[in-house]
Specification:
Layout: E1 2-8, H1 20-23, H2 28-41, E2 44-50, H3 54-63, E3 70-74, H4 83-91, E4 96-100, E5 122-125, H5 130-143
Parallel strand pairs: 1-2, 1-3, 3-4, 4-5
GO biological process, one term: chorismate biosynthetic process
Pathway: Metabolic intermediate biosynthesis; chorismate biosynthesis; chorismate from D-erythrose 4-phosphate and phosphoenolpyruvate: step 3/7
Function: Catalyzes a trans-dehydration via an enolate intermediate.
């Protein structure tokens, strides 16, 4: 069984309350339940972590170094400027997939750049909560 870490960044704990036209109507608990369900189908042991704090996300990524076989991360707004999170991902020797609920390239100009993408195995955006599901399927294929 593969150990997979899911990281939700800032403000994702407010899903269901945020702009539903952009982020959908599901709250984080509903999305987490769908992630866990998909993980069981794929024979993944899923750990889920959410933080609004950059340093806590970095610490969790550092802990992933020898503990997990893959990471799915939605860095939220940190996507666009956190070199520190980028550097923590770059250290990992496991697949890391960046996900976003919305298509960051069709939104405001300042959201069009990801400083994280270049050190991730791949990026999935624009599919709502299914971005996480697609990332888990990609990890399955990468870990075969």
């Amino acid at each position: 069984m593969e150990n997979i870490l899911i990281i939700h960044g800032p403000n994702l704990n407010m899903l269901g309350k945020r702009n539903k036209n952009i982020y959908g109507s599901k709250d984080l608990e509903q999305i987490n339940n769908l992630i866990i369900q998909k993980g069981k189908e794929l024979n993944f042991n899923i750990d889920i972590y959410q933080s609004n704090n950059e340093g806590d996300i970095i610490t969790k990524l550092q802990e992933a170094y020898e503990r997990y076989n893959g990471v799915v991360i939605n860095p939220g707004a940190y996507t666009h400027y956190s070199i520190a999170i980028r550097d923590a991902i770059e250290i990992l020797k496991i697949p890391v997939i960046e996900v976003h609920l919305s298509n960051i390239y069709s939104r405001e100009h300042f959201r069009n750049k990801s400083v994280i993408a270049s050190v991730c195995t791949g990026q999935i955006s624009g599919f709502g909560y299914n971005s996480y599901i697609l990332a888990l399927e990609a990890l399955r294929d990468l870990l075969l």
